[in-house]
Specification:
The protein is an alpha+beta fold. Helix content is 20%, strand content 48%. The chain starts with a helix and ends with a strand.
């Protein structure tokens, strides 16, 4: 990946309050906690969980509706440093989560 691409990705990440993890990517984050929220999908209200993560020194929100992801995250205490890897899209998304600290 070229230097400019990395600079631009970091700029976008710093400007957003939301965490983003594209398909095939992984990130190291500190898990800060979770709370129930109501989000919207195609104009419909959806029960979601908002995960609070620290990524590259910045606190980010990450809204997920997946029960499977919630089950995985329930294994970790607040403050844990995690490596999260995403594979797949939409209903075929899977996450590998590993505690590293």
């Amino acid at each position: 990946m070229g230097k400019s691409v990395e600079v631009l990705k970091q700029f976008v990440s710093r400007k957003s309050i939301y965490f983003d993890l594209p398909d095939g990517q992984e990130a190291v984050v500190r898990y800060l906690g979770a709370e129930p929220v109501t989000t919207a999908f195609k104009g419909q209200k959806v029960e979601s969980i908002r995960y609070w993560l620290e990524h590259d020194g910045v606190v980010k929100a990450w809204d997920r509706t997946s029960r499977e992801f919630a089950k995985q995250m329930s294994q970790f205490e607040e403050g844990a440093v995690l490596r999260i890897k995403r594979s797949g899209q939409r209903n075929h998304t899977k996450y590998e989560i590993e505690k590293i600290e």
